[in-house]
Amino acid sequence: MKDMGQGFVTPDGRRIGGPVMEVKNITLRFGGVTALSDISFDIREGEVRAIIGPNGAGKSSMLNVINGFYHPQEGEVWFRGQKRGPMKPHQIAHQGIARTFQNIALFKGMSTLDNIMSGRLTKMKASMFSQAYWFGAAEREETEHREAVERIIDFLEIQAIRKTPVGRLPYGLQKRVELGRALAAEPSLLLLDEPMAGMNVEEKEDMSRFILDVNDEFGTTIALIEHDMGVVMDISDRVVVLDYGRKIGDGPPDEVRNDQAVIDAYLGVPHE
Amino acid sequence: MFYREAGDFKTSYPADAATFPIAFDRWRYFLVIGFAFLVVPFIINDYWEKAILLPFLIYALAAIGLNILTGYCGQVSLGTGGFMACGAFACYKLMTAFPDLNIFFIILLSGGITACVGLLFGLPSLRIKGFYLAVATLAAQFFLVWLFNKVPWFYNYSATGQITAPERTIFGVAVTGPESPAWATYLFCLVFVFVFAWVARNLTRGRNGREWMAIRDMDIAAEIIGVNPLKAKLTAFAVSSFYVGLAGALFFSVYLGAAEVGEAFNIDKSFLVLFMIIIGGLGSIFGSFVGAAFMVLLPVLLKNTLVGSLGWPSDLAQHLQLLIVGLLIVGFLIVEPHGLAQLWRLAKEKLRLWPFPH
After folding, report:
1. Chain B within 8 Å of A114 (Cβ-Cβ)?
2. In a domain, B139, yes or no
3. ipTM > 0.95?
4. Fewer CB atoms < 10 Å away: N or C end of chain B?
């Protein structure tokens, strides 16, 4: 690993660029509870960045800050070299940040296809009047986006459940459809909140493969929260460790694994 | 046996996304449309027009409107009666203020005016949800009816407070007023219903429809994929009110001919249309038609069998109707919240595999 300022090359030969997302000195409070205090880290172009930590460490809060659900009391969020003002989540989606949720947040009343199609809403432009008439602009647009969505369906190997209402799908597949919906937006930064929670080993392997393929084939920058340390150490390029809302470690997996503060946090040394 | 997908291969995405992907469905649909346009006008009489076909068509339009808001976008509304009144009074004012303007455009404009009013009453939906929103729309219902009752300008200072539709013609044939022939009023309403049901189908299958359904199913996830909740909810309110306004305008000008706001557009109307979409099917255009047909036909059917055939007193039949509707609402909410349309869909799914289900 060399030249941290301009980017680096991973052991498996992928080039990691400059920072896409930088959070600087984020402090987030809910009433008297400080969920995040003075957190700073960056996410670089093309990397897989893991955020780990024990329960209640503030990992999900961090993602919620990044995609605009929470507005921190202090600190700054920089995206693509620009400081971000107060923005709504849907505006941030338009900037190219997509995410999945810890508890599946699919649209239960819609089919797999419609769910993934809805991921492309940010790219659809046809006016209401052309949609009311349908033939022409609206139908062309629909077909064009359908083609893109079919590529994602192929990629995730979910062709068979295209027309199935997502409520009927097993858990593992629902997680996959949710990933598909996030991918459909062709995000430059993809946030995954526990993409492998509640999965068996086989499903975890599938999901890991998809995450690595997304990163490799589409060059998507990924930030993920995960509890399975084996997975985290295997697929991530750099890891940031949170505990009780503070950052206690940051670096490549091997470095973090041997860090005394991280070991303490996971093994439960009493906090002073 | 002939209800098969096998061998019916789709070779393009538009064909795959068609409204009626199965050939048999498509032909049946064309047959019904053809029958409604080419046969019914020749055999229609005054009883069928006044008792069944006009109310069915007009309520179907209102039900589609409410379904867009409640079934597709998930925003409960009890203001349908008020918005229908708004369409009716807009229609009346436009008819009397611009006697030369074609009634066709007047009806469309009434829908547009109602859409603006609906937009205004949709604003609270950004802050409140569920029951609380239902109460806010209830306020719209009572406020609008009160307004049209209290401000004489709306009913042109007539002594009775009633509004009466003057005669208006299209291609020289009267479609409003007491002299209008049954086939003309029927065709006039049918054209509106046909065109706007098709428009509703198009809106709900494209970008707008997905935005609405995303808000309905999970508003947080909708925001994360880039749906602006403000825009999605307000467009749903506007489009929905447009439909309800059209229905109100047609209800007053073509069907009733004369109306008194507290009687024709009271809270009962709101509930009636809500029952239609619950029984017919939330989130289904077809369900809106089924629900409207059901609620229009049920009283007629009960009256004919109980009073006509069995000789029961008519007040008993009326109370029985309330009882049946109430039971059905409770039943549908528990057993099949997606209504008759879902039952129909399930039947079709079974039929596709019949007689070899495995």
Report:
1. yes
2. yes
3. no
4. C
